[in-house]
Design a protein that fits this description.
- Keywords: Cytoplasm, FAD, Flavoprotein, Methyltransferase, Multifunctional enzyme, Oxidoreductase, S-adenosyl-L-methionine, Transferase, tRNA processing.
- By secondary structure, this protein is an alpha/beta fold.
- It is 28% helix and 26% strand.
- Helix 4 crosses helix 5 (122-130) and helix 6 packs parallel to helix 10.
- The longest helix is centred in the middle third of the chain and has 20 residues, at 219-238.
- Residues 552-556 have low confidence and may be disordered.
C-alpha cells in the first residue's frame, strides 16, 4: 500500500488498522513515512491488538511526531469509543465481525478517506457502501479499495492552534503539561509561585505507583489502569525509574484488609486473568514468604509498581522540554486576565509575567483563586507523611500498603502515611504522626514498631474532586451554561484548560492526563475511550450542578 500520494500536503495523517498482528505492517508504515521528504509532520496510527489488558493503550514512540494507539477492545465497540478523524482505513481479519461497524467507521472517516480491505463479506461491503464508501473494484471478496464519499458534510477540524501556552503550576501536573506540549513543538512559559518545582503536593520524598482493581472494572478502575500503564511506558522514555528518575520499580504488595476483602480479590483474580507482571493474587503463605512479615489474609502483588520521588519526575520532564520552555519561578500569587485573543498572567502588583493564547491551570486546589475556575468543586485535603529512620523498621523488599503505605529505605529514611485531614494546618503535628504510626503498626503486625520516633515528615495538600477523578480539558463557563444538558454543548472559556484534581494518584495521572489534554488541543486522536474522556471533562460539574438544583442526584 502506498500512502504517500494521499498524505502529501497534509499536516497530520491518521491510519486505522483492524489488526496490529505482529506489528510488521505498522513498522513498514512508519518506515515509509520517515523516508518520504513530503510526509505530513505528524503520523497517527490506531490499531486493534490482542494480548493486552482491556482498553486503549498509547505507546510512546522515540519520534514524538509518531503516535501509536493499540486498542484491546472488540472491533465494533472500539470504533464506537474512538475519538479520531481517520484518513486511511485498513480492514482485514474481520469477516466474523458482522456489518454493524460500518456506521461507526463512517463517523470516524475524513471527507476523502481511503479504505483498503481484504476478506470482507458481501454483507459488510453492502453496509459500507450504504454509509458512503464507494468501492473502486468489483464487489467480490478479496482485496478491495474504496474512497469515502458521503453526502453528509463532515464537521470541519478546528484550525491549528497557536502553539504558545502558559502553564500555571510546576508540580507533577504542570511539568507533564510542559513536556507534552513542548514535544509537539509548542513554546511554553511555566509560571510557579515557589522558587523551584515540586514544592507543594509533588514535594514528598516518595510517591507510590500501582494500579486499582475492582470486580466491576468501573470507570475509575479503567482510567487508573490506563494511566498506570501509560506512565510506566512514559517514564522509560524519560530515562527510567532508578536512573533518570529517583525511585525503584521494586513492586508493591497490597495486603487484603480482611477475609471478606480477600474473597473479593480471589474472585477478581479468577475472572480477570491478569498477566502476572500486572497483578497477581498471593495467598497467605506466598505473601508472607515474599514479605517476611504476617499477611494473614493474602495480598495483591504488583510487580511493575514501586515508588518514585515526584520532584525527580518533575525535573526529568522539565529537562526534556529543552529550549522551548521558559521557566518563571518565585513569582508569588498571580492574576489571570483575557485581553483580546490572549491570556495575560500578572503578578500581585499587576506587572505582566507572560501572555499567550492558551493557559493550562495545573496548580492544584489553588486554581479556584482564579475567577474562571472558582466554581470548580475542588477541595484541598491535608496529608501528613511521616519520615522514619530506616533502622526503626523491618527491612522491606518492596512497597507495602493497605490503609497506609510504607516505602523501602531511601537515604536512610522510610516514608509512611498519609493522613486525610480537612484542615489547612501546614505544620507537622503529633496527632497526625501517631495516626500514621498506628496504621503502620497494623500494617507490619507489630504494636511496638516506631516507638519513640521523632516528629518528622512533610505536609502536602491533595487536590480532590467529589468523584475523586481528575479534571482534564477545556474549562467550562459556568455563568454562560444556561440550560445546557450535554457535555458537548457546555460553553467553554477560550484557550483555558485544566489539569486538576489528581488526589492521591498524581504520580501516575500526570503523564496520561497531559497527553490527553495536548491531543485535545491539537485535535489529534485521543488516547482514551470516549466515555472515559467524558468522565474527566471539567464540564461534568456544570451538568451535575444543574441536576442537583432540580433535585436530581444521579450522575452520568
Amino acid at each position: 500500500m502506498d500512502y504517500r500520494e494521499h498524505w502529501r500536503g497534509r499536516e497530520r495523517y491518521t491510519v486505522f488498522d483492524s489488526a496490529f498482528g505482529d506489528g510488521s505492517a505498522v513498522r513498514a508504515l512508519i518506515g515509509t513515512w520517515r523516508q518520504d521528504p513530503e510526509r505530513p509532520q505528524r503520523l497517527h496510527i490506531v490499531a486493534l491488538a490482542d494480548g493486552l489488558l482491556p482498553g486503549f493503550h498509547r505507546i510512546p514512540q522515540a519520534d514524538p511526531n509518531v503516535t501509536l494507539d493499540l486498542l484491546a477492545n472488540p472491533f465494533e465497540s472500539a470504533l464506537a469509543q474512538l475519538l479520531a478523524r481517520i484518513d486511511f482505513i485498513r480492514l482485514h481479519g474481520i469477516a466474523d465481525a458482522g456489518a454493524g461497524f460500518a456506521r461507526a467507521l463512517a463517523r470516524l472517516a475524513s471527507s476523502d478517506a481511503i479504505l483498503h480491505a481484504e476478506g470482507l463479506t458481501l454483507e459488510q461491503i453492502g453496509a459500507l457502501t450504504g454509509q458512503g464508501f464507494a468501492f473502486e473494484a468489483s464487489r467480490q471478496t478479496g482485496a478491495l479499495r474504496a474512497r469515502f464519499a458521503s453526502r453528509k458534510p463532515r464537521p470541519p477540524l478546528p484550525p491549528s492552534p497557536s502553539r504558545r501556552a502558559i502553564v500555571i503550576g510546576a508540580g507533577i501536573a504542570g511539568s507533564a503539561a510542559c513536556e507534552r506540549l513542548c514535544a509537539r513543538g509548542w513554546h511554553v512559559t511555566l509560571v510557579e509561585r515557589h522558587p523551584r518545582p515540586a514544592m507543594e503536593a509533588s514535594g514528598n520524598l516518595a510517591g507510590i505507583f500501582m494500579p486499582l482493581l475492582s470486580r466491576d472494572d468501573s470507570i475509575p478502575t479503567r482510567l487508573t489502569r490506563a494511566a498506570y500503564l501509560y506512565a510506566l511506558r512514559y517514564w522509560e522514555q524519560l530515562g527510567g525509574i532508578g536512573d533518570a528518575i529517583e525511585g525503584a520499580a521494586c513492586g508493591v504488595l497490597q495486603l487484603a484488609r480482611d477475609a471478606e476483602h480477600a474473597q473479593v480479590s480471589r474472585a477478581i483474580a479468577r475472572e480477570a486473568h491478569f498477566p502476572r507482571e500486572f497483578a497477581e493474587w498471593l495467598e497467605r503463605d506466598a505473601a508472607e514468604a515474599l514479605l517476611g512479615l504476617p499477611a494473614p489474609d493474602g495480598a495483591w502483588l504488583f510487580r511493575q509498581g514501586g515508588w518514585a520521588r515526584p520532584g525527580s519526575v518533575c525535573e526529568a520532564m522539565l529537562a526534556a522540554c529543552g529550549a522551548r520552555l521558559e521557566q518563571r519561578f518565585g513569582v508569588g500569587d498571580v492574576q489571570l486576565e483575557r485581553v483580546g485573543d490572549e491570556w495575560l498572567v500578572r503578578d500581585a502588583a499587576g506587572a505582566e509575567l507572560a501572555r499567550a493564547p492558551n493557559v493550562v491551570l495545573a496548580g492544584g486546589a489553588g486554581a479556584t483563586r482564579f475567577a474562571q475556575a472558582a466554581r470548580l468543586p475542588l477541595t484541598a485535603i491535608r496529608g501528613q507523611v511521616t519520615h522514619l529512620p530506616a533502622a526503626m523498621l523491618p527491612p522491606l523488599p518492596l512497597v507495602l500498603c493497605r490503609e497506609a503505605y510504607l516505602t523501602p529505605e531511601s537515604h536512610g529514611i522510610r516514608s509512611a502515611g498519609a493522613t486525610y485531614d480537612l484542615d489547612s494546618e501546614r505544620e507537622l503535628r503529633e496527632s497526625s504522626q501517631l495516626e500514621n504510626i498506628d496504621k503502620l503498626r497494623a500494617l507490619v503486625s507489630d504494636p511496638a514498631t516506631a516507638a519513640g520516633a521523632p516528629l518528622a515528615g512533610r505536609v502536602g495538600f491533595r487536590c480532590v474532586a467529589p468523584d475523586r477523578l481528575p479534571l482534564v480539558g477545556r474549562l467550562p463557563d459556568f455563568e454562560s451554561a444556561g440550560t445546557t444538558e450535554r457535555l458537548r454543548d457546555v460553553p467553554r472559556h477560550p484557550g483555558l484548560y485544566s489539569l486538576l484534581g489528581y488526589a492521591s494518584r498524581g504520580l501516575i495521572w500526570a503523564p496520561l492526563a497531559a497527553e490527553l489534554l495536548a491531543a485535545q488541543i491539537e485535535a489529534e486522536p485521543l488516547p482514551l475511550a470516549a466515555n472515559l474522556v467524558d468522565a474527566l471533562d471539567p464540564a461534568r460539574f456544570v451538568l451535575r450542578a444543574r441536576r442537583t438544583s432540580r433535585g436530581v442526584t444521579h450522575t452520568d
